[in-house]
Design brief:
It is a single chain. This protein has 201 residues and is of the alpha/beta class. The protein has two domains: 3-83, Alpha-Beta Plaits, CATH 3.30.70; 89-191, Formyl transferase, N-terminal domain (Rossmann fold), CATH 3.40.50.170. It is 32% helix and 29% strand. The strands form two sheets. Strands 7-6-5-8-9 form a five-stranded parallel beta sheet. Strands 2-3-1-4 form a four-stranded antiparallel beta sheet, covered by helices on one side. The longest helix is centred in the middle third of the chain and has 16 residues, at 60-75.
Length: 201
């Protein structure tokens, strides 16, 4: 059954949950998951909600427009809308150490995650045999202080060509620039391999 999933955050105000759930139920959507959280320090409201689309009155291709016009502008929401029959496209960044990469690729091939994995990017060639074993294209961009900006530009071009939705840093031993972070806001996951904040790396 096709489902829609909405992730959003915005300044916390009364009535947000009621408005969003009403938008779904009035249009005959069946809510199957809802989670929310308020960051009281920053006064930011976070919400994740999922609903079935088989009886939903708004056509799938129009949901984004309706929601943006009716609610997102009013509540200053930043949001993303996903559909269960559309898998997000993930890129992995890795350096030399293999154990985290093996874990992710094993879970991916076992079907634990509903994602597509078009490529792996590295600053070293060491783990290319691992990528080949799993049938994932592997791209090497050696990085020095002198060429870092240029290489990152090439990485971003490759990500755009492959329509990447989010990035996972898997023991990637480089600091990501603000430019790349701005290109993928809230869509970069860093798997940190030591205890924080004691060992920040």
């Amino acid at each position: 059954m096709d489902k829609a999933q909405l992730l959003l955050y915005c300044p916390d105000k009364p009535g947000i949950i009621a408005q969003v759930t009403n938008f779904i139920t009035v249009n005959k959507g069946n809510i199957v998951y809802l989670d929310q959280h308020v960051d009281h320090v920053e006064n930011i409201f976070f919400m994740r909600i999922e609903w079935e689309l088989d009886q939903f009155l708004i056509p799938k291709e129009k949901i984004d427009d309706y929601f943006h016009t009716l609610y997102a502008q009013k509540y200053e929401m930043v949001y993303r809308l996903y559909f269960s029959n559309q898998k997000p496209r993930m890129a992995i960044f890795v350096s030399k150490l293999s154990h985290c990469l093996y874990d992710l690729l094993s879970r991916y091939t076992a079907g634990e995650w509903q994602v597509e994995l078009p490529l792996i990017i590295s600053n070293h060639p060491d783990l290319e045999p691992v990528a080949q074993r799993f049938g994932i294209p592997y791209y090497v961009f050696p990085i020095t202080a002198e060429n870092k900006a240029q290489q990152e530009q090439e990485e971003m071009r490759l990500l755009a060509e492959n329509r990447i939705n989010f990035i996972v840093l898997v023991r990637y031993m480089q600091v990501i620039s603000d430019r790349m972070i701005d290109a993928y806001p809230n869509r970069i996951i860093n798997i940190h391999h030591s205890f924080l904040p004691a060992f920040v790396g």
